[in-house]
Amino acid sequence: MNKTQNNRAWWLVVPVLILVAFNAFIPLMTVVNYAFQETFGDNVFFWEGTTWFEQVLRSPRFHASLIRQFLFTGMILAIEVPLGIGVALAMPRKGPWVSVCLVLMALPLLIPWNVVGAMWNIFALPEIGLLGYTLNSMGIDYNFTNQPIAAWMTTVVMDVWHWTSLIVLLCYAGLSSISDDYYQAAHIDGASRWAIFRYIQLPKMKRVLTIAILLRFMDSFMIYTEPFVLTGGGPGNTTTFLSIDLVKIALGQFDLGPAAAMSLIYFLMVLLTCWAFYTIMMRNEEQ
Amino acid sequence: MSIELRNVTLRVGAEPHIYETSLTLKPGGFNILLGTTLSGKTTLMRLMAGLEKPTTGEIRTNGTNVTGLAVQKRSVAMVYQSFINYPSFSVFENIASPLKVAGLGKQEINEKVHRFADLLKLTPMLNRLPRELSGGQQQRTALARALVKGAELVLLDEPLANLDYKLREELRDELPKLFEDTGSTVVYATTEPLEALMLGGHTATLKEGRVVQFGKTASIYRRPATMESAEVFSDPPINTAVISKSGDQVQLGSVASWKVPRELAELPDGDYKVALRPHHLLLDGGGVEVNGMVQIAEISGSESIIRIRVNGNVWVSQTQGIHSFVYGEKIRIYFDAGNCMYFDADENLIDL
């Protein structure tokens, strides 16, 4: 029997190729283009090699925003993960309250980033905001527009408010997949509440929890809109995270070369951290 | 341990889950709860275990009332249809877990785990996690956990239902032997009459939250006290019909008649009920001849299962060999009148 060769099916891939080219490859290459060259406009470019990369990596300003970034991501993960697991465990498994809880949990996730920023900005304003006014009238000196610690706290609390739900929902899904027989068996064994959590619920939640942490890491590492609307990176530079700093360099100072180099470094960092995290988690899984 | 349910009922809200039930299981026996899904097998086990408190009645073990006693304080082990093991524990740790809770020493735990792992052929898998095992091995691990605990009451809730055919047969052969020496009272729930017969021991037939009959497995199969019990203990379904006795003949509608059996000889004329197991209804041979119409003929291995319309009832014949029929075909079937079971109007067995 003769097989007919027909390669026309390859044409079916073309739409995807075009899409990927326009939405990922071409923008990325433009950034690469700027990262290795210097331009003074008029589409005239001079080769600069790794100058911009060296400049960015040596700049104290980059180090400072990088440290702030890691501190922020670390803080929100340290709060949101345990809190999310806790709320998921406390949520009802059956009955009419399940859907009420799920809707309440999903609400913050549906609000756009800039609206969240604006909401918390107004909410926390010392003179007119409910939170700011209440705190001040309780005798606590609170003003996130000029106190670095207050600005940090507000940003962290805002992120916790906005995103803990994601972890709650994912963990809840993981918990719902555990059949009652497990709890019954543990009950017969005389296992404690802690043992049930540690040896049944946590292992059964591990997969979704990995995804949840990964998503929260990526998102918080790239956070821009909410702190930008809330504090604008201030007071001073105290809440200037990587992406806010990047926009300042690129659009404020119009230093396209260093900004492009920083973008690439930033991108690689997110990529590598996620890859490393995922690999480690999956390797644990296999063992 | 003997366990006794005394007039136990269970209601959830207004809905009765278990109707008044009394049942006494002797110590060290193999007891089967046989019934369809939702007949109350699992609920009865949960009551025995103490996971559920009866609405009325009491539960006694070794003569003492334990109604309401927490499950942890009883000597109970349970194995489920879905293979339940601690997901992050290795097979060794899983088997060791009840011993650790009991506070045994390292040496003793080690020795016991190895003994039972050996018994259940799990020794090469001791370091694996449950998800790295086949279904059969996972269930063996769960069984080992139940065995190692040395519980006085072991509840097995359809433990073989999720296993494939071969593994099920293998494990079914081993099960009674495994529990033989432990002295535990074993309760085994199943939906399959054949499984009950193979396991032996005692059987309780269940239907819709009621224990229909309890006794030696073989005698319940041979002499079911009621029609319900016979129905529960038959797969394919048992054939039933109303017959009428007049003089020295019984009539099954207009399709068959035979000589009055000894069971009915002394009784007045009138309507009675007859039940006949599918494998006693044959395509050839002698005995009573019945005319019917074929509805479906299925082949199962070297057997044929033929559904036949007989005088308004659908009867099933389970016969050796492969026979093919078409729908609507007229057929003559035969049975030996000696194989019939007769019931009175209240569906109680008429016994000699």
Note the topology.
The complex is a heterodimer of chains A (287) and B (352).
Chain A: H1 14-35, E1 37-39, E2 45-47, H2 51-58, H3 60-90, H4 97-106, H5 113-124, H6 130-137, H7 148-176, H8 180-189, H9 193-221, H10 225-230, H11 242-252, H12 256-286
Helix pairs in contact in A: 1-12, 2-12, 3-7, 3-9, 7-9, 9-12, 11-12
Chain B: E1 3-12, E2 15-25, E3 30-34, H1 41-49, E4 56-61, E5 64-65, E6 76-79, H2 91-102, H3 106-119, H4 135-148, E7 153-157, H5 165-180, E8 185-190, H6 193-199, E9 202-207, E10 210-216, H7 217-222, H8 227-232, E11 239-246, E12 249-252, E13 256-259, H9 262-265, E14 270-276, E15 288-300, E16 303-310, E17 313-320, E18 330-335, E19 341-343
Which segments of chain A are poorly predicted (pLDDT under 50) over 5 or more consecutive residues? none
Q: Strand order within the widest sheet of chain A?
A: 1-2
Number of strands of chain B: 19
How would you write the strand order of the largest sheet of chain B? 6-7-8-3-9-10
Overall shape of chain B: globular
Q: Count every beta strand of chain A, where a strand is a DSSP E run of 2 or more residues.
A: 2
SSE succession of chain A: HEEHHHHHHHHHHH
Find the structural class of chain B using helix and strand composition. Answer: alpha+beta
Overall number of structural domains of chain A: 2
Mean pLDDT of chain B: 88
Oligomer: heterodimer
CATH class of the largest domain in chain A: Mainly Alpha
Strand content of chain A: under 5%
Query: Percent range for helical residues of chain B?
Result: 25-40%
Radius of gyration of chain A: 24 Å
String of helices and strands of chain B: EEEHEEEHHHEHEHEEHHEEEHEEEEEE
Gap between N and C termini of chain B, in Å?
35 Å
Q: Which of globular, elongated, flat, extended, rod-shaped describes the shape of chain A?
A: globular
**Name given to the CATH homologous superfamily of the largest domain in chain A:** MetI-like
Counted by DSSP, the helix tally of chain A is 12
- Mean pLDDT across all amino acids of chain A: 88
